[in-house]
Specification:
Chain lengths: 223, 223
DNA sequence: GTCAAGCGGATTGTCAGACAATCTTGAAAT
DNA sequence: ATTTCAAGATTGTCTGACAATCCGCTTGAC
């Protein structure tokens, strides 16, 4: 009997790889908000055909990472502060709930994982690598969302966070934001570790509110 | 000066129409859960080309209305009760929040609209037209979500409700469900009309919980 | 000089056809 | 009954094409 029974890696299609590449490109801010994406350019850059690219673009459109206007084609939407506020509000709703549930149900093993990710963020926070800060912080939330016992909550949250990725790099590099973020996240961790639902909810709410405020500051200070 | 200035209807593309048609077909239960969708068949039935169809399918995949497995193609996902529960829980979170906000901020004009939609549901509830019941009830929620002041909340909610459309027809035709639904909705309406946030939240939560219970009953009674 | 009309290039929307890779099904063999 | 294998069906992807639409620029009228 083969060793890798049932572990078959589902073959990665061109479209999936393309979606991942483009998503990453968008996250890393490679495209300016408002700028148009030219299909033929992307095709040659990615080395794929137009139908494949267009399928990938439709996926990204449904995720709201790009906009496609008929006869104008795809572009990076400019995120207004109004919409960003709306996203932060829903994110608060979801993340607070997830933290509360997590406090009640996380396993010891996963809790250690959460602790490790907090340490990773601590390390990143003391450096000046804002990319590392963003990714380690994202890992921390991911673990909480993955252990709240509701996969839909997790999925919706991931979609929302993706849409405000634009801000996260900027606000993390604000003066002292990484350090205060660390304090807030540690509070969340402590509450979850203690199995204190109410405290976890409170700390989580506080964290999202401060993240929102930081995002606003970073937006105002930018042009 | 032309009369219709600025009212330009953005041209509907084949892909948009296809997405709408397929979405409607899925809502109306035309496809059995678990059944596969054959691209070539759909192309001839819809009278479109395969690239256009595949773009539409990618959009629906991102909405989680269909699944696309590499080398197996698109199919209607079988909604497990586990996932359905998760959806109802998040829906509760969102809908309660929306009802509460709506109570605080809805305009008099929109309130009358809400009242009219309640009347429409009342009429449908006394009939046996379960399709009319579902659509009028959906209108009622839509108005609440559209007036909660958070477009993202509305958007996410719509996506979730779409995924459980499968249940809504079934549970509405349960014995007495339409009537008790009417009572619950009337309570929500009264609370919003009175501007009572707390009551609106409570009534809304009650309503979602009962809808979930009804869905579970309808699922158990089915095979 | 300013503004409108119109022209041309660029880009998208959509289609047709093709072919290899993969899955599924059913028959054959043990 | 179970396994093996081959034929058919289906998907993943590409190439090439063409009409419709949009955008910028020139041109011409006032």
């Amino acid at each position: 009997m083969p060793v890798d029974m049932n572990l078959r890696i589902s073959p990665r299609t061109v479209q999936q790889e393309t979606v991942d590449k483009l998503r990453l490109a968008i996250f890393s801010g490679l495209f300016q908000p408002g700028s148009r994406l030219i299909e033929s350019q992307l095709c040659t850059q990615l080395g794929i055909s137009r139908p494949s690219l267009r399928e990938a673009l439709r996926s990204l459109e449904a995720e709201r990472l790009i906009e496609i206007v008929p006869n104008r084609g795809p572009s990076i939407p400019a995120l207004s502060w109004e919409v960003a506020t709306a996203i932060y509000e829903v994110r608060e709703l979801l993340e607070v709930e997830a933290a509360g549930r997590c406090a009640l149900r996380i396993s010891a093993e996963r809790l250690r994982e959460l602790e490790r990710s907090l340490s990773a963020f601590e390390l990143a926070a003391s450096s000046n690598d804002s990319l590392a800060q963003v990714t380690t912080a994202a890992d921390f939330y991911s673990i909480i969302l993955a252990n709240c016992g509701n996969p839909v909550l997790e999925e919706v949250h991931r979609g929302l966070v993706a849409r405000i990725s634009f801000f996260r790099g900027r606000s993390m590099s604000l003066d002292g934001r990484a350090q205060s973020s660390l304090t807030e996240m540690r509070e969340i961790y402590e509450a979850i570790a203690a199995g204190d639902e109410k405290a976890a909810r409170k700390a989580s709410r506080q964290h999202v509110l401060k993240a929102k405020a930081a995002a606003k500051r970073s937006m105002d200070s930018a042009t």
